[in-house]
Amino acid sequence: MDHKPHRRSGPRVLAGVALALSLAGCSSLNPGTAEAADVASRFHADLASGDFQAACTLLAPGTVEKLEDGAAGSCARKLADLGLPGAGGVRSSQAYGSNAQVQLEADTVFLTLSGRHWKITAIGCTPRGEKPYDCEVEGN
Prior knowledge:
single chain, 29% strand, 5 strands, 140 residues, alpha+beta, five-stranded antiparallel beta sheet, Nuclear Transport Factor 2, Chain: A
């Protein structure tokens, strides 16, 4: 990609909610954290094995659309072109309502519930202190 996508406030809001929940001691009360972590791990395992089509199935529709940037059906090719580095193991996972954040050793992944399944809304995200996360791909 020639440019970074416009950053939306989604990850900033999610990070704020995650911080509030962790300060309130609610992390153990958040169902879905293990499932969200599993999706983020499977996504990066698919990337590592070169199964970009399988990785695309774990993305939310808006994320696929943003990634394809008008070239429908090119999700797998675009993921391969991104060259995201390996993410390592899961450090933490938090789910709150229909959103989740999974922090891996080298990536932060944001997810949303789509029906009964977690779908990835932002990948390749790195924190920037008080500013919103900087994400390689971010959908709506």
